[in-house]
Write a structure and sequence with these properties.
The chain has 997 residues and is of the alpha/beta class. The protein has 38 helices and 23 strands. One of its GO terms (molecular function) is single-stranded DNA endodeoxyribonuclease activity.
């Protein structure tokens, strides 16, 4: 089956796509007509006729575009026409479309001879996105300058500014917003700027949101979209995504996503869209050469064994979790990228209820998938090292409280281990099996040399693409050290990487020697610390029970017992190979290979055209002693690079290769090559696509194609049945929680009466806007005021301060001791300090995730119940010590951000509004009064340590004498009168001894 051909069943899907009802179709007569927005957003809405007459004075603006393909131009037209969510197929050029759209919508307008610059905000953009969009916008601005020589006014330009971190102060950001242009801002900073009115929503022309698949109802991007629409109903909102799979998960996912982004229309452009197919496929398009490589016999046995173990693990997982298992958990879907994530999404909320064996099965499934990937990519020595690590992690010992992984009990696991060893060393011989793709790659390069001799137009370099850095380094080393061996029937040469493999086995032996040295040193140190062997417990065979002979007798669980015995009786991982390996033999063979290379004069230097991009960039122009540089023609260059997602098309455009070799499948890069070929039709690159036939690599690629097609098919069907949505300004107005709803209007205790119509507010630290809680507080009706707080995260009332900690924050704060400092500051400035421990909405509401996160288990073994229980006790002990040291602290437990929002609303009921000035100034005077604060903290600690003073005495002292300086100046008689004669005498004598000054 071809991996690079069009699907035959796409015509029906295209037909359904074309039959989707248009959102712009006439609505029923009884539908409510909404007020039309103004024709041009830069003109403010006003009831006066004269301002609307300015529309006649708007000058037309010429826009230059850099979209070469027809389907990209059609997408841009649809995006300009209406606010939409664009879902594009992988690798079809999302960034150029976004850049051209931003360039078009940010075009300055000249109204009555006055130029007005638009303000467009780009949200949720990564560093790679910003870099690519900046390059595209720079090119577009150059084209505009070339087309119009009269553009000398700076107002006509569209500056692109990236605002990340704290590099810009609020005043600088406000000035940038007023200047206009295109601003790429992090969501945390922009939501703070909206709430603090640093930027006026009425001045924002529109929002562009990237990676819409990551947006949820609690994300800051959704928060920003709602706030923007509340105060600006004429600006545009555009959203983009090139990952369709997340949109097809759950119930009505497309409807929910559109609601979160305040959009009504969706644009679906899959690879099988008829306009995309017409743009990418033409008569002159050269076919891709598929290179099917057969696996070795050992690789086939290992793959069969791993797949069988993976199937058993999945079946066992379904059996142990019958109420949670879904149909998706099957071996057919195991090669899906999101398979393990789907298991975690279902099991994580119930993680504290499932058994240790079930948790270990989840770990094993992930491990087996990694082993399958490594089998296809890594060399034989590296793969065997992985097997060693797995065996060592599962080896029984006295100090380990964990059992062996279930998959190692299966018979198929022995085949994985056995053939993994045979690929390295078998029968006193260094096998050192090479990856079959390596030789095929060398043959392809030989064919390319022949083809260049017959085609003078192929002057570009050869680009080899692979999956990761490790494979890239291996390929570079192989191409550098490979040597031509005997002829196969006198027709084609054969290439060998024996020298590289011998170097790898030499490095392996060096690492094993270093491991033995370190282990021996640690054992000697432990022996010196103990009393000879009295404190050590060695599990020798002398202490083991003599096994009962099972001859002619059947025993229950005999197969499992035999598997356990094999693991117990097996030597340490690698010992059976190392005992037969001879380092002298390795050195001797390396010397022979060097001699052959010298005789045949086929040694290749590092500079012979085999390069990696970052290697050439990092080296720069600095020359090292003994190394020289020379110019290499483009046609002699062989560049090895890894798939990097967003920057792959930049590599293609800058290098302009004549030959492209995809060493491993990657769906997004295949699409980028198609786009590159369609743009350069006059001289397309020759493309080779390599994969192992009848392998999991082939199935993984086919699965990714199938999943994307199924996702688009589901989205097309949902779009066809998507209900029309109508809204007015009142529909989405925030429900304001008034003062009368959260506070009694009765004036008691002399409290100052406030207007019952005043909006209830909460003070939030600006660093907390990374979390979803501020957005939820805004949606339930509280007025969120961002501030830079020194003490606490949330100020509810003048007396109530809350420090919020997620699971990761709590563990990190305990380790660094930062939590004790934060609690000390809250206890000093607020009467009712609280520590809020907030769990993730998708995690179980128990201490078990705390302990497992703190233990940081490897990807091989799950945390054993006994170890998890001990770690839970440590966390409880830390919390107990925190409460003892700070008695005023109250601990609040929340299962999710939603419950936290409800809890905060309840805590504010019946209480005063927070004091903004007091909250900002709290903790700021510590720098000026550092000496007094340190003295105060030291005396409080000493008061607690005075013999005979209990906690009630301590509270009595702090309640009656609040000023520490006053306590230091009081006489013995005054202390005795206030605290009693006995207690006063003891405190006076203690303070006099230690603080006479």
């Amino acid at each position: 089956m071809s991996l690079f051909v069009e699907q035959d069943s796409d015509e029906e899907v295209v037909l359904n796509l074309n039959n989707v009802p248009d959102d712009d179709a006439p609505q029923p007569p009884d539908s409510k007509e909404l007020e039309e927005p103004p024709e041009y957003p830069l003109i403010p809405r006003d009831e006066q006729e004269e301002e609307n007459n300015l529309l006649d004075q708007v000058d037309p603006v010429d826009i230059s575009l850099t979209l070469p393909l027809k389907f990209q131009q059609l997408i841009l037209e649809d995006l300009i026409a209406d606010d939409s969510l664009l879902i594009l197929g992988k690798g079809l050029g999302m960034e150029p479309i976004v850049a051209n759209l931003l360039h078009t919508l940010s075009a300055p307008a000249t109204i009555a001879n006055v130029t007005k610059r638009s303000l467009v905000i780009l949200l949720n953009a990564s560093e790679e996105d910003n870099g690519k969009i900046a390059d595209e916008l720079t090119e577009l601005s150059w084209i505009d300058d070339c087309n119009d020589d009269t553009r000398e006014n700076q107002e006509s330009r569209r500056p692109f500014v990236v605002i990340r971190g704290e590099q810009y102060t609020p005043d600088k950001r406000k000035a940038l917003y007023l200047q206009g242009g295109i601003m790429s801002v992090t969501s945390r900073i922009f939501i703070v700027d909206l709430l603090t009115q640093i930027v006026n929503p009425q001045l924002i022309t529109g929002l562009a949101v990237l990676h819409a698949e990551k947006i949820s109802d609690t994300s800051n991007e959704s928060f920003i979209a709602h706030m923007y629409r509340q105060k600006n109903n004429w600006g545009f909102i555009k959203a983009f995504s090139d990952t369709p799979e997340p949109f097809a998960t759950g119930y009505s996912p497309l409807h929910k996503k559109l609601k979160d982004l305040r959009l009504k229309r969706v644009l679906l452009w899959p690879r099988f869209h008829i306009d995309v197919t017409k743009s990418l496929v033409s008569k002159n398009t050269k076919s891709v050469t598929e290179v099917k490589v057969a696996m070795t016999e050992s690789m086939r046995h290992i793959q069969t064994g791993i797949v069988a173990c993976l199937k058993k693990c999945i079946e066992e997982l379904r059996r142990k979790t019958p109420t949670l298992a879904i149909e998706y958990w099957s071996i057919e879907n195991a090669l899906d990228v999101n398979f393990v994530n789907s298991i975690h999404r279902i099991l994580d909320p119930n993680w504290h209820r499932i058994s240790y064996d079930t948790k270990q099965l989840v770990k094993d499934i992930k491990l087996l998938k990694d082993l399958l990937k490594c089998l296809m990519s890594y060399d034989a020595v590296a793969f065997y090292q992985m097997i060693q690590i797995v065996l060592e992690a599962n080896r029984p010992s006295v100090d380990k409280k964990s059992a062996e992984s279930p998959w190692l009990m299966a018979e198929e696991s022995q085949a994985v281990i056995t053939y993994g060893k045979k690929r390295v060393f078998d029968k006193d011989e260094y096998v050192l099996e090479e990856q079959p793709k390596w030789e095929q790659l060398a043959i392809l390069l030989e064919d390319i040399v022949t083809e260049r001799a017959h085609d003078a137009t192929k002057t570009g370099p050869v680009l080899i693409m692979c999956s990761n850095d490790r494979v890239k380094r291996t390929l570079k080393t192989f191409l550098h050290s490979m040597r031509e061996t005997e002829q196969n029937d006198g027709i084609r040469s054969s290439y060998s990487g024996r020298r590289m493999m011998m170097n790898m086995i030499q490095q392996y032996l060096d690492s094993q020697d270093l491991k033995k040295t370190v282990t021996s040193t640690i054992k000697q140190a432990n022996t010196l610390e103990g009393d000879d062997e009295s404190q050590e417990l060695h599990m020798t065979r002398a202490f083991a029970r003599v096994p009962i002979s099972t001859k002619r007798r059947r025993t229950r669980g005999g197969a499992a017992v035999a598997a356990v015995n094999r693991l117990h009786s097996a030597p340490v991982a690698g010992d059976d190979i190392e005992s037969k390996m001879n380092r002298d033999d390795v050195d001797m063979e390396l010397m022979e290979l060097d001699t052959l290379d010298d005789e045949e004069v086929v040694a290749v230097d590092d500079e012979d055209g085999i390069i990696a991009l970052e290697d050439s960039i990092e080296s720069g122009y600095a020359t090292e002693p003994g190394r020289y540089y020379e110019y290499i023609d483009r046609e002699n260059q062989v560049i090895v690079e890894k798939y990097s997602g967003k920057t792959d098309d930049i590599v293609l455009q800058e290098l302009m290769p004549s030959f492209i070799i995809m060493f491993e499948p990657d769906l997004a890069f295949i699409r980028r090559v198609e786009v590159y070929q369609a743009v350069h039709r006059e001289n397309p690159a020759r493309t080779y696509f390599m994969y192992y036939s009848d392998s999991v690599e082939e199935q993984h690629h086919l699965t990714s194609i199938r999943k994307e097609k199924e996702a688009f098919t589901k989205l097309i069907r949902e779009k066809s049945t998507l209900a029309s949505h109508f809204e007015s300004d009142e529909d989405f107005n925030k429900f304001h929680v008034r003062k009368s709803q959260v506070m009694n209007t009765r004036i008691a205790g002399g409290a100052q009466f406030r207007d019952s119509n005043q909006e209830s507010q909460i003070l939030v630290d600006t660093r907390e806007f990374r979390a979803p809680l501020p957005g939820l507080l805004h949606r339930i009706g509280l007025k969120v005021i961002p501030l830079t707080l020194t003490v606490g995260d949330y100020i509810l009332t003048p007396k109530v301060c809350v420090e919020r900690k997620s699971i990761a924050d709590l563990i990190g704060s305990f380790k660094s001791g930062r939590l004790y400092e934060q609690c000390a500051r809250m206890s000093k400035y607020y009467d009712l300090p609280a520590l809020l421990i907030e769990f993730d909405n998708n995690q179980s509401f128990s201490l078990e995730p705390f302990s497992e996160t703190r233990a940081r288990p490897s990807n091989i073994k799950a945390t054993h119940p006994s170890s998890s229980s001990k770690l839970q006790e440590d966390i409880q002990r830390d919390l107990a010590a925190l409460v003892i040291n700070f008695p005023k602290i109250r601990i609040l437990w929340s299962s999710s951000p939603y419950q936290t929002a409800e809890l905060i609303l309840e805590l504010k009921a019946g209480r005063e509004e927070p004091d903004l000035v007091k909250a900002v100034n709290a903790g700021l005077s510590e720098e000026k009064q550092r000496d007094n604060v340190l003295l105060s903290n030291n005396i409080v600690t000493l008061l607690q340590n005075i013999p005979g003073i209990t906690n009630p005495d301590y509270y009595n002292i702090m309640r009656k004498i609040k000023d520490v300086n006053k306590l230091m100046q009081m006489s013995k008689a005054e202390l005795s009168r206030i605290l009693g004669e006995d207690l006063g005498d003891r405190i006076f004598e203690y303070l006099s001894e230690n603080y006479k000054d």
